[in-house]
């Protein structure tokens, strides 16, 4: 009976790294194969399903827990990673627990110089959006990604003058040391897509 309940949903209380505050992670059982982007997979030995789920923190998107006949229990953690476009991976996975809360996301630096509108359209065509710098953690991630290039990066957010009807517009950009600013949407720069799964 207990095993059947775990097939539908698993609630785990994991302690955050700072201060022992409790955070509830929520998982849903996925049995059919799904195509997932930008994963790094790590395998660990664990005591049980609950201890496996407790390891799934931060960028962890899903997990797969298995027991074999010899009493060995393994936990595969599927982690989203900030990456460069040339390193994207698509992995077909099945029979796992997908984290539905808190949401996981990945930043992907696209090293193709295009305008803000084309960058936005590209990210959306791949199931994401231009990355939005709406937290200190995301600003730090953009700083790390910007260190790989010497030009500003297109990011998401509200355009000050919408680039519509042939107008040039002013669109959000990120530049290390300067943070978030705006400039002409027609400039040609690399950009960062954000994917939430």
TrEMBL record:
Residues 1-21 form the signal peptide. The keyword RNA-binding does not apply. Keywords: Signal. InterPro entries: C-type_lectin-like/link_sf, CTDL_fold. The keyword Lipoprotein does not apply. It comes from the Eukaryota. This is C-type lectin domain-containing protein. The lineage of its organism: Eukaryota, Metazoa, Spiralia, Lophotrochozoa, Mollusca.
